[in-house]
Please model this.
Amino acid sequence: MTEGPVPYRVTRTRRETADTVSLLLAPAGPAVLRPFAPGQFAMVYAFGVGEIPVSVSRIDGRELGHTIRAVGAVSAALTAVEPGTQVGLRGPFGTGWDLEQAAGQDLLVVAGGIGLAPLRPVVQAVRAAPGAYGRLNLLVGARTPADLIYAHRLRAWTTSPGPPHCQVTVDRPLPGWRGHVGVVTTLLNGARFAPRNTTAFVCGPEVMIRATARDLLHRGLPPRRIRVSLERNMRCATGHCGHCQLGGVLLCRDGPVIGWDRAVSLLSVREL
Model:
């Protein structure tokens, strides 16, 4: 792993929502980061402003995708970049979704809001490996239709006969919305999976993670097969500063993806 940020060039941008932008990045020189696994994250540096942790949302050879919501100075700077701009990347950091362990099983991918971003590479990887997994279910929830990221991709997935079996819901519909209304767990009844032979990957707000894990446990999924991605305030990404400590876990090093058998007790700990 390179110590300093490696320069990457923004090759394409796509506005997902009013405050969220996807960046496609390619190496700007000979230096290239090690391959990322779905679920891992990079420290993305806006030169002259600072850096933030961002999960990889697309893995395409040497190119990487990151979907960023503007919530602070660094993220606002990154969502405003134009194609051709250079940013710095460090990584990969953290744990991934562990698709190898899920081989041969049905998959439940449950996303809330921008939590779909770190889960998108799971769908990408499974679609690229036909026959390696069982049924692929993608359940997506957002506050309103305007808050759905990858809306163009979701439309394609919901109308396609192939994987994933995709369902989308919103908490509050807007005029013209003809889809499902309700929290994302209400989509579980329409998912196709055998609980004792299923792995679930869950990412979103903590309240949504808790509710989803509870419902999946009631349906018979073992806690260790419910994998969740947790967030805390990450700064160094190397486990030294302690800002991302959650109980006895440093999420930048031991997470962000962990099993529910470990996460259930950690989520009772307040953010430091």
About this structure: The chain has a mean pLDDT of 91. The radius of gyration is 18 Å.
